[in-house]
Amino acid sequence: MTGQHLDRRSVMRGVATAGAGVAAGALAAGGGTAYAAGAGGDPYVVNVMSHNADPTGATPSDAAFRAAATELLSAANWQKNPISGTILKKVLLIPPGNYLLTEPDSLLPHVDGRGGGGVIDGIAISGYGKRTSRIVYAPTANDTTLWTNYRRYKNIRISGLTFTSTNPTSSFCYSYSEDGGYGAQDTWYTDVEWRGDWKRGIGLDGPVDATQQGQAQSDLNSEMGWDHCQIGGTYSEAFLVTGMNTAATQQDQFLNYWFRDCKVEFKSGVFVKNIRGGSMNFIGGSYILTDGAKAGTFFQLTSDAASRFDSVLRLFAQGIRFELQGPNHKVIDSRWTRGNITFVSCDDTAQHFQDWAPGAVTHAYAFDVDGASGPMVRYLDCALMGTHRVTTGSTPTTSGKLLYDGCRFIDARKPAGTDGFLRWTGTAAPRHEMRDCLAGPTYTPDVKYPA
Fold first, then answer.
1. 8-state DSSP, 396
2. Closest CA relative to residue 342, chosen from 359, 363, 366
3. What is residue 347's DSSP assignment?
4. What is the distance between the alpha carbons of residues 216 and 244, in angstroms, rounded to a whole number?
5. Structure letter (DSSP) for residue 431
6. 66 φ, ψ to 5°?
7. How far from chain centre, in Å, is Cα 55?
8. In what helix (H) or strand (E) does residue 274 lie, and over which residues does it extend?
9. Quick one: how many helices (H) and strands (E) in the chain?
10. In whole angstroms, what is the distance from residue 39 CA to residue 24 CA?
């Protein structure tokens, strides 16, 4: 086994052989629990238990986590790599337990990579599975962040953990990246769960100007993925905010996001708020808004930024079961003036039997933000409840269109118009087309506007 080929199974095997006292704790001579006993033994692992973390959650483990991170990132753990120059040769392990953290940046230290800390390539933090290895973030101060990646950490793997916030002003991660090798590129979450009340899950930020500190800022590198994760709780801003500064055109280089087979089942707020950047893919999974009394939106695509690059104005969703449980719930609320939005084989009809469902606006688009333009919107083989609403004015659509192909409008009896499935607010109808669709149980005539 080498540092380059260490996988999570190997980590678990190594820790298991380090002694039974790792997970359960060993009894100290005085009868207390010595949590660190037997926690070492694997040359490729830094175990938070070896730094006296408390797996019962009775006392804060900030000092233990900080000490473990210091060991993980120490110069003694660097090794040469032919791809990126230097990488770590150890991973951070969090055994089963409930660990209480009360201070910001206790998971990894907040160090400026450009300011002398250096870029660290290859960070792996592993638990034993969500709800088995749990971290509760309970800061007494408001507006804090559990961990900050300030142009320092690249190629990050976080797996097998549950994160819970008890302070609704807290955020999980703030990630600031820029060109010149100081990106937060390639972050992947696997089998990770978020619970509790948060202000923001993950916020992506970067420089405002095209140049900063003499460096070109053309590529901010923020590819991220979520695989078999669970997003729960509440979010007053959003779980994922792509681009924190509307004036920073360079933040359109935040791009390429993949959510695969996730359970997005949160109470209220926004799942993904797209201000800058984009090119987003959502494949499979169950997406549920669970608090019918509060507002919630899965995809909020804003027009806050005055300019956008064409290559990032893209959202693709496939094979997802959406469940909206209240009249103020939406799958999508888009104010994009161009780009492409595609739903393939998706279903949001689970609650269509509710009294409020037929009149609910479940998908909303604005075609009046920049003249009379909008994105190219496609629904292919989807089952859809309620109504879709397009904000228009008096000017015919100059760009953009809504196309429904082989879809079922489960609550509607007409495809489009003031009492149809697709409705609009202005005197001008948006450009739209419906073919081979069902309105309720009956095939509806194909519609094309303008003809």
1. P
2. 363
3. B
4. 19
5. P
6. -65, -40
7. 27
8. strand 268-274
9. 3, 37
10. 10
Query: Tokens 């392990």 map to which residue?
Result: 93
Instruction: Report yes or no: 397 and 403 within 8 Å, Cβ to Cβ.
Output: no
CA distance 262 to 228: 5
Matching residue, tokens 């309720």: 440
Q: Which of 283, 72, 259 is nearest to 64 (CA)?
A: 72
Angle at the Cα of 441 from the Cα atoms of 360 and 330, rounded to 5 degrees: 20
Q: Locate tokens 């694997």: which residue?
A: 42
Residues in contact with 354: Cβ distance below 8 Å, sequence separation at least 6, in sequence order: none
Q: What is the DSSP letter of 218?
A: S
- Of the candidates 319, 381, 384, the one whose C-alpha atom is nearest the C-alpha of residue 352 is 384
Other C-beta atoms within 10 Å of 127: how many? 26
Pairing of strands 268-274, 432-435: unpaired
pLDDT tens by residue, 381-402: 999 999 999 999 999 999 999 9
How far from chain centre, in Å, is Cα 415?
34
SS3 16: helix
- Find residue 265's DSSP bridge partners: 288
Q: Retrieve residue 420's tokens.
A: 């149809």
For the cut 70, the answer to whether the pLDDT of residue 20 exceeds it is no
Q: What is the DSSP letter of 436?
A: S
75 exposed, middle or buried (CB, 10 Å; 0-12, 13-18, 19+)?
exposed
Q: Identify the bridge partners of residue 101 per DSSP, sorted by sequence position.
A: 137
Q: Which residues contact 365 (CB under 8 A, 6 or more apart)?
A: 332, 334, 335, 374, 375, 377, 388, 389, 390, 391, 402, 430
Report angle CA 313, 365, 379 to the nearest 5 degrees. 75
Q: How far apart are CA 184 and CA 120, in angstroms?
A: 10
DSSP 8-state assignment for residue 315: E
pTM of the predicted model, to two decimals? 0.90
Q: Please report, as a single letter, which amino acid is at residue 289.
A: L
Structure confidence by residue, pLDDT tens digits, 203-237? 999 887 655 555 555 567 678 999 999 999 999 99
Yes or no: say if 146 and 106 are a contact pair by the CB < 8 Å rule. Answer: yes
Residue 15 host element (H or E): helix 8-16
Q: How many CA atoms lie within 13 A of 69 on its CB side?
A: 18
Strands (E), 12-140: 26-27, 33-34, 45-47, 78-81, 85-88, 91-94, 97-101, 120-127, 133-137
Please report, as a single letter, which amino acid is at residue 115: G
Tokens 């799958």 label which residue? 331
Cis preceding-peptide flag for 415 (omega within 30 of 0): no
Tokens of 21: 């006292």
Residue 146's nearest CA partner among 163, 132, 162 is 163
| Mean pLDDT (whole number) for 145-163 | 94
CB contact at 8 A, 77 and 90: yes
